[in-house]
Amino acid sequence: xxxxxxxxxxxxxxxDEKFDVDHLHEYALLIHLGVRDLQIGIVDNQDRLVFFEDYxxxxxxxxxxxxxxxxxxFEAHHLLTAGFWKKxxxxxxxxxxxxxxxxxxxxxxxxEYLKLNARFDLDKEVILHCENTTSNVVTVFALHRGIHxxxxxxxxxxxxxxxxxxxxxxEGVLHETVTDNKxxxxxxxxxxxxxxxxxxxxRLVYYNQFPIQHFSDYxxxxxxxxxxxxxxxxxxxxxxxxxxxxNSPHAIEFSKYIKNVSFGSRPKYLKFGYLFDEIQDHHFYxxxxxxxxxx
Length: 295
Hints:
This protein is an alpha/beta fold. It has 2 domains: 7-165, Nucleotidyltransferase, domain 5 (2-Layer Sandwich), CATH 3.30.420; 176-263, Protein of unknown function DUF3822, C-terminal domain (Nucleotidyltransferase, domain 5). 23% of the residues lie in helices and 34% in strands. Strands 1, 2, 3, 4, 5, 9 and 15 form a 7-stranded mixed beta sheet that branches. A 5-stranded mixed beta sheet has the order 12-11-10-13-14, sandwiched between helices. Strand 7 (125-132) and strand 8 (137-144) form a beta hairpin.
């Protein structure tokens, strides 16, 4: 049986009128890689998002396949192989992570922390970490060694940092203004995954991610966390970001079980031109929040 060719598809592209290819040396490049998708963002020196792309991948069976596809995509792209960005931030979406209090973190023990929460292969993966300075939490995570080495060589002349999706989401919600006496539950719906976070008095009190196979899983896990956090199903506020339309059947279904759901807004720390109005405000929150890390 023939193996289907690996492929990628560009779902959305926006180039702001203020984007200037002659100023790449002043820009920060954001690369956000998932198992089945990739988002690209470019932020100028005025904290304005001036370029955005969203891709989905097909027919990938391994990290090695993913690396081959990434090389193909980058080589065909007119911007991604440029080597003189002011900053490059590369973020990975996976479940090989653990959060460690900064006061307890020892770099040399990073793999020991991760071993408590995930399986990994040091022959094929590197163990990295990034710090949430707002919450004094260090996220330890694994990244495929081939992808890490390729990205490192590609951007060896830029200020390059590696980070994890969970760290971006944590930093993002810590910058949200919460005025209610009862803190809300923050929910991010990714493709095939659910992230749930809780913040109280400016500190992270809960983060976890859950794999999604059926729509009912979303409600099940949200209810599970509400109960664990002793939050009332009827009155607790849920703030929702991610891949769900405001008037979609999924959003309507949410409202049947969880009464106080509202959609999150775009972050205040980034500026968006009018061309970004075609993207719903609650989409791509994890990509946007990368801007807060390692600034």
